[in-house]
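User: What would this chain look like folded?
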Amino acid sequence: MNLTIAPIDPARPDFAGIVSGVDIAAGISPQEAAAIEAGMDRFAVLVFRGQRIDDAQQLAFSRHFGPLETATGDIVQGAERRLAMDVNDISNVDKDGRVLPRDDRKRLFSLGNMLWHSDSSFKATPAKFSLLSARVIPDHGGNTEFADMRAAWDTLDDETKALVRDLVCDHTQLHSRGVLGFSDFTDEERRRFAPVPQRLVRRHPVTKRLSLFLSSHAGSIHGWPVPEARMLLRDLTEHATQPAFVYRHTWTPNDLVMWDNRTTMHRARRYPADQVRDLHRTTVADSAPTLQQAA
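Assistant: Here's the prediction, encoded as structure tokens.
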């Protein structure tokens, strides 16, 4: 096995690794899958360069790490989708490959990806791993930033740790999109995006490290007045996303980036609205709702 994983930033040897010696299109062995999962436990973000893959190959690779989610969080469903239901459409194009108009509903909804978030925290059982494949990228902008939520927890003062340790938040895309002024939801979508409870502090099942579980989808804390809850969540997010905790990924064609939603947040950055940005995401589901996992 020629697979190796090295820190992208030697000054931060436990966050963001670069993977070499693997060809995702050709398929991987169980031993390689185990090494990648161990790398995820250490780094939380892994970068695979030069992976020219299609959706079938991406799905086959992703299934090594657990059962996959369906893309029920995408605003476009049914016949209007351009990708299969087990592939999230992270793009600004319609099913005919044309760049969406600025006022297109799908485009406006997708602007929420530019807020700090954890994928599928709005689902009862949230995401474990996300795998994002860059098919077409703009000539500038559109990078993705990742924040290390383990480091965010470790550097909280003891008083704040005690305050947040056992709190439970409600997560919903109705909140994250509402922050941007997007409220164009159908009754069916409001039912689909009904709030779900999540722990604010999580323990990794393998490393046992604690991390903050924050997301723009979190809009309330059980037992707290809403304004006070949102102020605390804002303060925690500012702490968690300070530059010392963030890896900024500059996309090149055929990159695949894999990250652990249990221990990171991420966000997309702005790019020219008239240029194509087409990325395909597969998502590995976690084992159970966070309230059923070990605290």
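The longest strand covers residues 127-136. If you want, I can go into more detail on any region.
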